[in-house]
Amino acid sequence: MEITKEMVAYVAELSRLKLSDEEAETARKGLGEIIGYMDVLNNIDTEGVEPMSHAFAVKNVMRDDVVRPSHDRAELLANAPKADDEAIIVPRTVE
Amino acid sequence: MNITEMTALELGAKIKSGEIKAPDAARAVLDEIKKKDPYYSGGINAYIITLENEAIKRAEEVQAMIDAGELEDSPLAGVPIAIKDNICTKGMKTTCASKILGDFKPPYNATVIEKLNAAGAVIIGKLNMDEFAMGSTGETSFYGETKNPWNHERVTGGSSSGAAAAVAACEAPCALGSDTGGSIRQPASFCGVTGMKPTYGAVSRYGLIAYASSLDQIGPVAKDAADCAAILDIICGKDEMDGTSLDVEHKSYLDSLSGDVSGLKIGIPRQCFGDGLNADVKAAVLGVAETLKSKGAETEEFDMPLIDYAVPTYYIIAAAEASSNLSRFDGVKYGFRADGFEDLTDLYMKTRSEGFGEEVKRRIMLGTFALSTGYYDAYYKKALQVKALIKKVFDEAYEKYDIILFPAAPTTAPKMGESLSDPLKMYLSDIYTVSVNLAGLPGISVPCGFDKDGMPIGAQLVGAPLGDSVILNAAFAYQQLTDHHKKPAEKFGKEAE
Asked: For a disulfide at B350, which of B50, B271, B338, B417, Cβ 3.0-4.6 Å?
């Protein structure tokens, strides 16, 4: 399958990645080659085959709803690139 | 025998008997790392961080417990172990070998770390890896490539590059790696050590930074199968923090090692020994069948169709899950944040573009594509259907055989720099490992010989679901009859001075 410049731009936007023109062209060629190879799966008849997301059947795992302490706030905030005493700081999102 | 040359169980026994003190064991390993590892002086670069003070302090604590008669049933008490840097260690930097995690210090331990601590193991450092476990050579690390201890011009394999190299170079008695599509078994094969991916769900993934959650599994890398069994005994088990972990009763893997393989049925799939397989590798891997046959195992060739489709199936599924899992790295909650952004979306985009390496970006985009409107059915859903068919092929094989034998990789370790320029070629080299993850099976790579250049070859023994002790015992039996796993890495191995 031919991967176009527009498709790369769309996928990059969805991926929250910014690509230079040069990177976009490399990605276009690279993805084109890889996705082209993946098309071999079309050789297999999968009509009526149930898609399998887990190799073993997994069911909902339930547990009792018990209150327990969460992680220490200060400890979590210490990992944030920018924070004050009680919150992570990000650029304003709502005017 | 030098401390660093011992297997983990040998060292553990000597610590238990009082012949060696745990802090001395930690110091010996740390000295070896200082001698062989530094990147700037051309060393192996197996470690991203060594935990010198913490390890010695911890070893002293463990020694005090042993002296007080505690940890009696723990064969690895006091033994140093190194941890792949995608496994969270509380308060200790955990990087996934990526710039984007910056100085992230996890606020909690992975379940496997808690279990190792309880068993008295001493964590000695965090190991290099392909960035976010994405790579088959160890070259995509933000912290520089790891060198193969057998030959510095060759790659270690990946993504558990540091784990395999550290054990091969005697820079760690044993290690924990993770395996999503061969990331333990393939580097173990390239570095001449023993590495195992347990059955999916046998080991809790809580605290393992996710790449592809339905395929990821933590496992041991060590000098032999007995060490792998001892480590698996410690780290396995149901964990309420991982809903996919399995609740299974089993005997101790270590105690189950009998070395008896009489009547063991070994299947050899013809499709895994065809074109594209290096002749030295083929001969060495088939030699494993002959060796086990001499001890009463039965071998038979059989057809395993669809195996050629495992690579595209794996890369679609793994990339799709990665694109979702890695969306959490956005420069807000932890790690690196780029400068000079205009608004929140721009902060995300700049941070991710500067923070992720090329291979990670490629897989995020590939996965995003496979999940996007218009392509979901043709790629992602199709891959999940083929996965079901591949699983069925394995299920049918295990009606006839206890173990399936094939190589861990089609070649020995390639030269540095050969794979990065051609990602598709690198993906195709994963042909022998990815199907095992798709089907959730246990697999172990054991050293089984050397190619004409003296580079190690690994054979892969793959078991039915929860057949972990079956493959461990077969590997153990093989290692009792051979000494490939004891041959030192030429450059920096056991006999090097």
From this structure: B338
* Cis preceding linkage at B136, omega within 30: no
Which residue in B141, B160, B178, B183 is the catalytic one?
Answer: B183
Query: Is the confidence at residue B47, as pLDDT, over 80?
Result: yes
B214 is catalytic: no
**Residue contact A14–B372, C-beta within 8 A:** yes
Residue located via tokens 């991982």: B242
Show the tokens assigned to B110.
């992975």
Question: Would the pLDDT of B493 be above 70?
Answer: no
| Active site (annotated) includes residue B21 | no
Q: How far apart are CA B469 and CA B323, in angstroms?
A: 34
Q: Which of B107, B240, B353 sits opposite A71 (nearest CB)?
A: B107
Domains of chain B: 3-258 (3.90.1300.10)
CB spacing of B369 vs A7 below 8 angstroms: yes
CATH topology for the A5-43 domain: Histone, subunit A (1.10.20)
User: Which among B344, B352, B388 has the least Cβ separation from residue A52?
Assistant: B388
Q: Is B187 on the interface with A (CB under 8 A)?
A: no
Task: Answer whether residue B34 shows pLDDT above 80.
Answer: yes
* Contact list, A82 vs chain B (CB under 8 Å): 337
A14 and B349 within 8 Å at the Cβ level: the answer is no
pLDDT at B129 over 60: yes
Q: Could you say which residues from 41 to 70 on chain A have a Cβ atom under 8 Å away from some Cβ of chain B?
A: 41-44, 46, 49-56, 58, 61, 63
ipTM of this predicted complex?
Answer: 0.96
Over residues B203-231, the mean pLDDT reads: 98
**Three-state SS letters, chain B:** CCHHHCCHHHHHHHHHHCCCCHHHHHHHHHHHHHHHCCHHHCCCCCEEEECHHHHHHHHHHHHHHHHCCCCCCCCCCCCEEEEECCECECCECCCCCCHHHCCCCCCCCCHHHHHHHHCCCEEEEEECCCHHHCCCCCCCCCCCCCEECCEEEEECCCCCHHHHHHHHCCCCCEEEEEECCCCCHHHHHHHCCEEEECCCCCECCCCECCCCCCCCEEEEEECCHHHHHHHHHHHECCCCCCCCCCCCCCCCCCCCCCCCCCCCEEEEEHHHHCCCCCHHHHHHHHHHHHHHHCCCCEEEEECCCCHHHHHHHHHHHHHHHHHHHHHHCCCCCCCCCCCCCCCHHHHHHHHHHHHCCHHHHHHHHHHHHHHCCCCHHHHHHHHHHHHHHHHHHHHHHHHHCCEEEEECCCCCCCECCCCCCCHHHHHHCCCCCHHHHHCCCCEEEEEEEECCCCCEEEEEEEECCCCHHHHHHHHHHHHHHCCHHHCCCCCCCCCCC
Contacts of A43 in chain B (CB under 8 A): 309
pLDDT classification of B466: cutoffs 50, 70, 90? very high
- CA gyration radius for chain B? 21
The residue ranges of every structural domain in chain A are 5-43
Which residues in chain B are closer than 8 Å to A73, comparing Cβ atoms? none
Using the structure block, give the residue that is written with the tokens 């020994």.
Answer: B273
Catalytic, out of B74, B136, B141, B159 = B159
